[in-house]
Amino acid sequence: MLRIENLTVIRDGIPIVRDVSLEIGEREVHVLLGVNGSGKTTLAHAIMGIYPSKGKIVFLGEDITHLPIWERARRGITLAFQEPARFEGLLVKDYLMLSSREKDMGKIKEAVKTVGLPYSILFQEIGDNLSGGERKRIELASVLLMKPRLAILDEPDSGIDILSFKQISNVILRMKEMGCSVLLITHSEDMINIADRATIICSGKVAKTGDREEIKKLFKYSPCPLKR
Amino acid sequence: MDEIIKKEYESLVKYYEASGGNSHALISKEYASMVINGDKVLAKNSTEGIIIETERIENGVYARITVKRGYKAKNPVHLCFGMLPREGKQIIKSEIVAEEDSAVRFIAHCIFPNALRIEHIMDSRIIVERNAKIEYEETHFHGKSGGVKVIPKTVARVKEGGEYNSSFLLKSGRAGYIDIDYEVHLEKNAKSMLITKIYAREDDEIHTNESIILEGAHSSGVIKTRMALRNRAKSFVIGKTVGLGEYSKGHVDCTEIIMDDAQAEASPIVIGKNPKAKVTHEAAIGSVDKKQLITLMTRGLTEEEAIDVIVSGLLK
Ligand SMILES: Nc1ncnc2c1ncn2[C@@H]1O[C@H](COP(=O)(O)OP(=O)(O)OP(=O)(O)O)[C@@H](O)[C@H]1O
Ligand SMILES: [Mg+2]
User: Fold this and answer.
1) Residues B195 and B178: beta-carbon distance below 8 Å
2) What is the mean pLDDT, run by run of 10 residues, along chain A of 228 residues?
3) What's the structural domain count of chain B?
4) Whole-model pTM?
5) Which site among A51, A70, A93, A144 would you substitute to test the B interface, given the most B Cβ atoms closer than 10 Å to its Cβ?
6) What is the rounded distance in angstroms from the CA atom of residue B126 to the CA atom of residue B78?
7) CB-ligand 1 contact for A16 (6 Å cutoff)
8) Are the C-beta atoms of B250 and B243 separated by less than 8 Å?
9) What is the distance between the alpha carbons of residues A52 and A68, in angstroms, rounded to a whole number?
10) HSE-CB of A157 using CA atoms within 13 angstroms
11) Could B292 and A84 be called an inter-chain contact, meaning their C-beta atoms sit closer than 8 Å?
12) What domain range includes position B138?
């Protein structure tokens, strides 16, 4: 459903993502592994259209390489940010409402519950009054409500406590059930276990793509096998 | 009511509702209220604790509103100042006194729906007596042409333990030319918060000059300004707080978003004249936050839609 061909992302003159090719199938949970600074977020943002890139991105048979962010979103791609934005004056419920495909308060409450937040949070502003972990869960709820075809989740589990870990992986499995493919960026081994397939990215390049177990082993043994 | 007044009243009330006003409150005897079109008082209602007296003056109306001692108003006082014609000048001079231990909230709407060349001058003197409280909320609706000049001037004195909070809101339609001049004097333990929220477009021009003088010990005041400017709009914001009293606290807080060719100038002024007073400020002028914009676009909003969401959040 997503095919990336020879994607290169240059930021301030430096190639951060280099000649990446990658395919994600329908209802596939694909984990992107890589050490800090290897280019995972940059690749995710390029798929979303946040950064311009060279190469080709094909989504559901359509070349979307030159579409703006919102056009990609309307075709079914969305992204949960590693560090979600703060919004002065915007209430959680309004943020979720504008993300939501169905403009229904019942659905919004359901999503809030699914990500393990209390209903009372709906009436809070998305500002410094919320913790980083709370903002990440709101981000996840908002992605869930969009009912995307492809959800790119950038470390949804970082800054989330151990108890809630299970919740996050349940949310991802639920997306899969809904017919959504997931590109999941994570550093945690437990999270990798929900993947179907995985890719190791290293110095901006694909080191290896394969089945979950194979990549897991390889990553443990050699997290960045390529040199710059 | 004679026929002409009735007609004017009805059409003003229509706009009043469209701009978010509660027209039931204008009719109900439970609410103190006043409706003015141009220099005519179309309706007014005093209640047991709130007395409204008016007098016609050249090009306008003089109004005196008294909230009686100890009276805590359950219902807000609704005020509607309008000018239905396209051109003209309206002067409202008012004196508002909240007597000791009283409490009241005003909801004022200023409506100039057809304005091509309208001047609205407001000149208020407000006295908040000991331990009394006034909330004054003013919403403006200026129509689409921008041909409005609004010049509100207020001098308020808040006596010991009293509180005066005001807000000036203009979020839809054109702003036109606005020149706000507010000055609040706070005595011992008195408090005040002045909020201004304006969305300016095209060649709108906004001037604000607000000051809170912290005269008494332990008095505290905040001036909060939020503006969004597009096209060629300009703003000049002065927020000033002067710390005179011991342990008085003042803060000036201004955030403005500018887009297109808009320009903003903010000058927070903090003056400390007592070493035990504390006066602070923060001011930020910048474009729409990139991260917020991108986040909203990943949710399927176009850039314009995303800007609307961000701006209405700022002005909320
Ligand atoms: N605008 C930029 N100009 C130059 N270098 C940049 C720019 N943005 C990011 N980088 C660099 O690109 C590299 C990849 O960053 P990226 O955020 O994609 O890494 P990541 O794999 O997501 O890391 P982490 O695991 O820490 O989240 C980093 O070395 C970073 O410093
Ligand atoms: Mg990252």
Assistant:
1) no
2) 97 95 96 94 97 96 96 97 92 95 93 94 94 92 96 90 80 92 91 93 93 91 75
3) 1
4) 0.86
5) A70
6) 17
7) yes
8) yes
9) 10
10) 22
11) no
12) 3-288
Provide the token pair at B199: 């969305």
Higher pLDDT, B253 or A164: B253
CATH numbers and ranges of domains, chain A: 2-220 (3.40.50.300)
Joined tokens for residue B259:
């887009």
What does the pLDDT read at residue B12? 85
Instruction: State the first-to-last Cα distance of chain A, in angstroms, to the nearest integer.
Output: 30
The verdict on the CB of residue A52 being under 6 Å from ligand 1 is no
Is B295 part of any domain? no
| Partner residue opposite B299 with nearest CB, options A50, A88, A98 | A98
Instruction: In whole angstroms, give the CA distance from residue B193 to residue A7.
Output: 54
User: According to the model, what pLDDT value does residue A227 have?
Assistant: 60
Residue by residue, what is the 3-state secondary structure of chain B?
A: CCHHHHHHHHHHHHHHHHCCCCHHHHHCCCCCEEEEECCEEEEEECCCCEEEEEEEECCEEEEEEEECCCCECCCCEEEEEECCCCEEEEEEEEEEEECCCCEEEEEEEEECCCCCEEEEEEEEEEEECCCCEEEEEEEEECCCCCCEEEEEEEEEEECCCCEEEEEEEECCCCCCEEEEEEEEEECCCCEEEEEEEEEECCCCEEEEEEEEEECCCCCEEEEEEEEEECCCCEEEEEEEEEECCCCCEEEEEEEEEECCCCEEEEEEEEEECCCCCEEEEEEEEECCCHHHHHHHHCCCCCHHHHHHHHHHHHCC
**Sequence-distant contacts of B33-36: CB under 8 A, at least 24 apart:** B33/B77, B33/B78, B33/B79, B33/B80, B34/B63, B34/B77, B34/B78, B34/B79, B34/B80, B35/B9, B35/B79, B35/B80, B35/B82, B36/B61, B36/B63, B36/B80, B36/B81, B36/B82, B36/B90, B36/B92
pLDDT of residue B13: 85
A223 lines ligand 1 (CB under 6 A): no
Give the residues across from B222 on adjacent strands.
Answer: B193, B251
Query: Strands A54-59, A87-91: parallel, antiparallel or unpaired by DSSP?
Result: unpaired
Of B84, B86, B34, nearest in space to B61 by CA = B34
**Which residues, 6 or more positions from B6, have their beta carbon under 8 angstroms from its beta carbon?**
none
Contact at 8 Å (CB) between A48 and A82?
Answer: no
Which residue, B30, B2, B37, is CA-closest to B16?
Answer: B37
> Above 0.90 for ipTM, yes or no?
yes
**Does some domain include residue B314?**
no
The residue assigned the tokens 């007597």 is B99
CB B174 within 8 A of CB B195: no
Among all chains, which residue has been given the structure tokens 């400390």?
A: B272
